[in-house]
Each structure stands twice: as structure tokens, then as C-alpha cells.
Amino acid sequence: MRKKLIVSVILFALGLFIFASIALSESGRKKKDELYRQVGLFSDALAVIQSDYVEEVSPKDLIYGALKGMLASLDLHSQFLDQDTYNDLKVSTKGKFGGIGIEITIKDGLLTVITPIEDTPAWRAGIKPLDRIVKINNEITRDMALTEAVKRMRGKPGEVVNLTILRESEKKILGLNIVRGIIQIKDIKESRILEEGIGYIRLAQFGEETVKNINLALNNLSKERMEALILDLRNNPGGLLETAVQITGKFIPNGKLIVYTKGKKEKQILEFLSDVKQPILNLPMAVLINEGSASGSEIVAAALQYYKRAIIIGTKSFGKGSVQTVIPLSDGTALKLTTSKYFTPGGKEISGKGVIPDIIVEDKNESFSEPEKKPSAEDIFERIEKNDTKQPQKDGSDYKSDKQVVRAVDLLKAVKFYRNAKE
How many structural domains compose the chain? Predict the structure, then answer.
């Protein structure tokens, strides 16, 4: 009886395995059949366009157009990169290219500035995070692909790019003539002691040399007897994930979770832990963020906030918490595809939500809060022709007129005072 029971259990388990395999195989077959059916539909449409469309269109243009539309339909950050755009991307990652110096995305159906890059033509012209670009060289940006917008703004240094900007926070439309320059990205913009031993590092991006450069900056500030640190991540659009992880690891204990990613495939589920051998754990810190802080900046701020390692000050960050993988194709083009999303150590999703500061302090010149009633993209495009344009006013002031920095300095002074009193 016992042998019969064991044989029955084995046969039952085997039957379940075979049934599951058949079910999975059937499910896979149905998916493939559906894919082949839809590809057939695409092929039919392609043939009709080539046969009946009023003008001659090359197969390459049709396929590229279809790929651009297909990638754009997925999310705001996935893109099809033609040869020129892909080459531009490869050049820009080396830190030097011709353009006006802004990071952009599509938000609420409008071409939106994530942040201007410091010390570039766009920065000097007064462009700000959340500005909406409604025209490029007098051409309306309605339905313009992100790659196309980037291509129109990049080009030979010395040439003028005309932008029409909607600034919703001021309810203004601004006309800007910006002369392209050589965009050379510098990761650390400023490093100095502000007052009473409070160090300040302005980090503009996370590049290949950033870890080395921030180590040098911290060493120099330590020699000047730094007793607290302000890490300014405002208008930092991100960069290399590994760099953001390494910089975060400098300020939290070894072996702590900094960020994790989740995607469709098992290999896209990754955890990133701190692994700096001698982290800086006793230095009081404040981190500044704003609407222009995205991606890697949000990872650093969220982790330091979670471990209560720094006070986060400013306004809510951009909310660009996803991983884009660039996948080259056979003809020199590429897919820039969202493959996973970032999650904080506490399990919060960054994408679309951003990081909320511990202390809300608006930027020195602007409130980036959304208006009570937001107009739609179509409303905006219908209105832009009726509005007057004018140049924005620039402001070049010292840190003492910067409300966020001043608030951070005051808080770190209080922390230092409390620690000294306790000792």
C-alpha cells in the first residue's frame, strides 16, 4: 500500500508538471500567434501606404516613423534613436557637445525643462525647471517627439535657437534667443566653507569622474576644518547610477540598501548596497533639492533621508525614477527603453512621485508649485499666439540671498550647538 501511495503521488506530481507545461506552452503559443497577427496587420498597412499614399515615401522613413511612435507610446522616457540622435547621445555622455544646455522631458503633454545645466547658454538666458517649451525656432512643439526637440536645439556653436517658453508659475510667455555654445559639463560647480565650519558642495551631475572629484573636495574642506556639510543637488538631472550609489555610500554605514530596481525580467531586479570602507558618519548634513533634481539626485536624497543621515531641504524633486537602457540595433540606430524603476530603501517608488523634503523652502526667486487649475496642453497651444513675450530677469546674488542655503546653514549651526552642549 505504501509503495502504491508513493507511486500515485509521483504520478500525480508528474501529471501536474505536464499539465502546467502544456498550459504554459499553450499560453506562449497564443502570445506568438497574436504577435504574428499584429505584425501581419502592420505589414498590410505598410503595403497600403506605399501603394496608395499621395507622395513617394521610402520604406526606411516609414519604419523609422513607426518605431518612433511605438517607443513614444510606452512612456515619457523611452525613445527610438536614429543614427544622428544616437551619435549625439554618445557624444553627450563624454561631457562635451554643441547646444544650449538643458535637460528636457515630456510632462502633461508638453515639452518640459527638467533643469538647465549650470553655466550654459540656457542657464544664462534664465530658463528654469518646469518651463514649458511651446515653440522651437517658431515651430510649435505640439506632438513633437523628444528626440526631434533635442535635435533642433543642438547644433553648431554660435548659431541662434529661438525658444518660446511658457512659465506657468508666473503666468508668462517668454521669447528667448539663445546662442548655442560648447556644452562642457562640470560635475562639481562649487566647493567651499561658507561660515563657521559649514562646508558647501554644489554637485551638478553624476559622471565618471564625480566620485574622484567629490573625494578631493571633501579632503580639501576637511583641511579647512569642516564641521558640517551642505550637499546641493538642485537642478542636478542625474547621470550614472553607480556614481550616485557610491556617493551615497560615503555617508551611511557599510552594507546598507541604497536603492533597488524592479523590472519585468529577473535580472532587472537589483539591489545596490553601500560598500565604502570608511564612510563619513558623524558629519552633520543637509541636502538641497528642487524640481530640477532628478534620477540620481533623488536616489541620494531619498536614501540619506531614509537613514536620517541628512536633513532634506527645498521643494519636491522631479520624480524621474526609472532606468533607461540604450540597446543598439543593427543599422546604427538604437532603442532607449525603460527597463526598470527605482525604489527607495523603504520601498517607495520615485517615478512620478519624487522626493518630499523634510523642510519645504521655496527656491530663492521662484515658487514651482502648480497653479490651482492647470490648463491642458491643448489650451496652452491655443493661447500662446495671443500672449506677449518678454525676456526674464536674471539674478546673480550671493548665497545669503538664497533662502534654501541660509535655512540649511541655520539648521546645521543648531545641530552643531546641540552636539557641543551635549558633549
Answer: 1
